[in-house]
Amino acid sequence: MSSTIHPSSIEQRLQSIESSLQKLTEAVGRVLEATTAKPVPGHNETTPRVARTSNIRALKDEGSPGLFVGPSHSFSFLKEASNNIEAASRASTPSAYQHARSELQFLSTSLTTATTKTESVSHDEGFFIPSKALGYQLIGKHAPTGELFFCTPPDDLLKQIVFHPEQVTQKAWVVYFDYIMLAQASTEEENQANQAANFRRNVRSALNDSSIFLEPREINVQALAILAMHGEDYTSPNLSWMIVGHACRQAEALGLHKPPHLDFESYQRSLSLFWLLFIVDKSCTLAFGRSPFLPVNSYHDVPLPEFNYLLKFQPHTDSRFDDSQSQTPSRPSNFGARYFMGSIKLAKIMGSIIEFLSPGPSAFSRHEIKIQLEKWYASTNKILEDTIEAEKHFLGTAQLKEMSLGLNSMRFQYLHIVIILLKGDESFSNLRLEAAREALFLLPTVVSNWSSVYNGVIWHLLYYPFIPFFVVFENLVHNHAFQSAVTIDHDLKLLATTVSYFVSMRAQMRLLATLCTRLERVAAVFLQLAKSYLGRRTSVSDESRSNNPLTLGNSLSDISSVPTLPAMRQRAGNTLKEKHTDVSWNQYEEGSVLGDDAEIGNLLKWLPADTFTADLFMEREQQNEAGSANTTGFVTSSASESSRGRKRAFDATFDWFSWDAYYMDGDPGQLVP
């Protein structure tokens, strides 16, 4: 049985709907008049305000959202630093307290947000196209950087990248090439600075292609990897982590760990790129306490690259490090290959640490991981030092300095991991503090920039120093009553070394000079807070003041000139005969390595190239001539060769660490392995 609807019925319904809409419109109009004419007192008055405030906050949060970090991570010191500021505020000046609070907020924002501040590139600007002469010069400069991990573009594609970048289908090639060129363009000279701006413009234009992030391709993985690790424009820790995540997901989708039916070279390159991402992934995971993109358990059966293939990894023999002392080696250098293999092993140990620090049961205890970590460092460090000893005869000064940078960077990373692993266990508190002290002491030896490969991820160089910094700061705030005046003095000088470190890094990271200056200020403000809290604006004694002009009474502007190159890294010099084993604070060699007439200029030459600007170096030379620039000799040896009660005796050495007095306070049984 069917029913029919008459036209008159439809018209009635439409009229009814129209009438209802008219009434609704009138009702809404009356409501609007009532709300805009006069606010209703009481609860209804506050509700719109709350809503507007919530909207404003939401808009602000949309610009720089606070990101999640796990309960156990490298940057957990932020919460403790906040508590330490509160403790220090009881005896410090209000201004010191406010400045410290402000700087900690800046540091926290830098570590817990991910925002890009790069200028947008309009379509009208397009890509920078060099002249034919400059273009072919760039092609000639494009060495196969990272040949071990990355495939280089063929000649025809390389020409297209340089002269017709808009026609390149896969824009990741443009990112890869132009960022290498950007890294090589020194910003010290004006013409080079202009070139750097052009390369940066091309990189940003190419990154507008979303396929770089969405389509799994090996060239996309290459471009993202180089941006995440050595991209000075992308040094925000969270931004780097996001880029690493994209690269790891694409590597998983491509199956780089199990490439199908490839020739030997392509297969080994895919494996090497996979393990490179594996290393960086573990570092980022430990930093933020998040889940790894490439879990250890899922990839423990993936084979390592062949050692003969890894012999291609020789960044220290690059043409940038050639000098008159360099010789053509009779065989490839093993240092790079062994360094990379050691880094893979460390990344696996970091995977165990991540599992241990995560909620739930762990297959390993803290002590077991600690023993495993110590064995790794002792073995890897010995292998690398033996390699340097065997290859020193055909390597130049600059090449030896790069290898020394690798050893220093690995030692710093080891100490960093020790600090994270031992956190929360009071039985290891002394060991953790000693690791933090040595990490700060090592800072001048890891000053470097994009031109070095052994220095790891760029943002690690900028933010990781604050981890040992705040361990020492916390000890000064809470345990100063149990420390001798000499020990407190030395710890304050270690905090000052961090300030000096960022001064040096500012000269190295010219694209990040503003950020380095800001981080320098963070360290300087907390140093001043510690000095204000402890009431130690003068040196421990008049004698130490007369012998050492770099006392605590000096202004912060003088701190940047503290020469703190550990002599334990002097082994990259002419002899390279010292054997560095397990470093501890009660071990040091007999006699002087540098000699009584050692000059600061000779000492500083062992730092990576361009560590200090000319002005800083001249300032230190003048201080040396005035008898005020004394440096530290800190050398380690095996326990059987050390003598805890003996000090170095050479006139040109500033006695930073009065070991006898130091060990009146500490537990000599707990040593950094």
From TrEMBL:
Keywords: DNA-binding, Nucleus, Transcription, Transcription regulation. One of its GO terms (molecular function) is DNA-binding transcription factor activity. Its main location: nucleus. One of its GO terms (biological process) is DNA-templated transcription. It is found in: Nucleus. Residues 240-311 form the Xylanolytic transcriptional activator regulatory domain. This is Xylanolytic transcriptional activator regulatory domain-containing protein.
